[in-house]
Amino acid sequence: MMMSNVAIGVPVRTSDGKELGKIKEIVGACFKVDAPMQPDYWLATDMISGEDGNPQGIVTLRFDSNNLDEAKSEGPEHSGYHRHT
């Protein structure tokens, strides 16, 4: 995972290139997406692609836009898609 790209204000996109918004908040192993024209939501940092060649300053996720709803988390304390350390 490309943790060096995870910072407030960094754009977030799916693996198929759909722009989701920008990182608004980071708590532990989760980050909140500031999504335009819809409610903000949480994603796990382990959803970030580990591909080399990721453009600097962009977080690309491991899933495509069709799987976004399944990847959303209820908050930084959720027990969903990854373990908290």
Descriptive terms for the model:
mainly beta; disordered C terminus; 5% helix; Photosynthetic Reaction Center, Chain H, domain 2; 85 residues; globular
Model description:
- This protein has one helix spanning 68-71, and strands at 11-13, 19-27, 30-34, 41-44, 59-60.
- The chain is mainly beta and 85 residues long.
- It has a single domain (3-71), classed as Photosynthetic Reaction Center, Chain H, domain 2.
- It has a 5-stranded mixed sheet with strand order 4-3-2-1-5, with no helix packed on it.
- Mean pLDDT is 81; it is low at 79-85.
Q: How do the helices and strands follow one another from N- to C-terminus? A: EEEEEH
The domain tally reads 1
Q: In terms of quaternary structure, what is this?
A: single chain
Low-confidence stretches: 79-85
Give me the CATH fold name: Photosynthetic Reaction Center, Chain H, domain 2
> In which range does the helix fraction lie?
under 10%
Radius of gyration over C-alpha positions, nearest whole angstrom: 12 Å
Report a brief summary of the structure.
The protein contains 1 helix and 5 strands; from the N terminus they run E-E-E-E-E-H. With 85 residues, the protein is mainly beta.
